[in-house]
Design brief:
Blueprint (H helix, E strand, L loop, with lengths): L2 E10 L2 E10 L10 E6 L11 E3 L1 H9 L3 E2 L1 H9 L18 H41 L1
Parallel strand pairs: 1-5
Antiparallel strand pairs: 1-2, 2-3, 3-4
GO cellular component, one term: cytoplasm
Protein name: Small ribosomal subunit protein bS16
GO biological process, one term: translation
């Protein structure tokens, strides 16, 4: 039987309150559980010590038995130094793919070429205007 340490929702509509429970991984979120080991009230301020309450001894016991905490519970338990929590998001995942990056580079090159062509077109009439003025001065 695989065990999870996870949140079970309680409270009223739009007023969430969660219990930190040890449950069989196959049971539903708010279904049957083995033991309540804490509570989490997200409505309280983040600096309030009553926001997260965990029985550290029982959590340690269940971790030794092989219970796996969910991402959110692992974050709570890391504050008690029971588990090592690392963010699981991958910042590289948001980067565009190879083809999108190639298209972006091509677009940049075209824009740069267009800018250079526009700058050259502006410089030509100015150069032509200066050239006749110089010829008149020589004559």
């Amino acid at each position: 039987m695989s065990l999870k340490i996870r949140l079970a929702r309680g409270g009223a509509k739009k007023r969430p309150y969660y219990f930190i429970v040890v449950a069989d991984a196959r049971m539903p979120r708010d279904g049957r559980f083995i033991e309540k080991i804490g509570a989490y009230n997200p409505l309280l301020a983040k600096d309030n010590e009553m926001r997260v309450q965990v029985d550290a001894e029982r959590a340690q016991y269940w971790l030794e038995k092989g219970a796996q905490p969910t991402e959110r519970v692992a974050r709570f338990l890391s504050a008690l130094d029971l588990v090592k929590w690392q963010p699981s998001n991958n910042p590289q995942k948001a980067q565009p793919g190879k083809k999108a990056q190639e298209r972006k580079e091509e677009r940049k090159a075209k824009e740069e070429a267009a800018r250079e062509a526009a700058a050259a077109a502006e410089a030509e009439p100015a150069a032509e205007a200066e050239a006749p003025a110089e010829e008149e001065a020589e004559a």
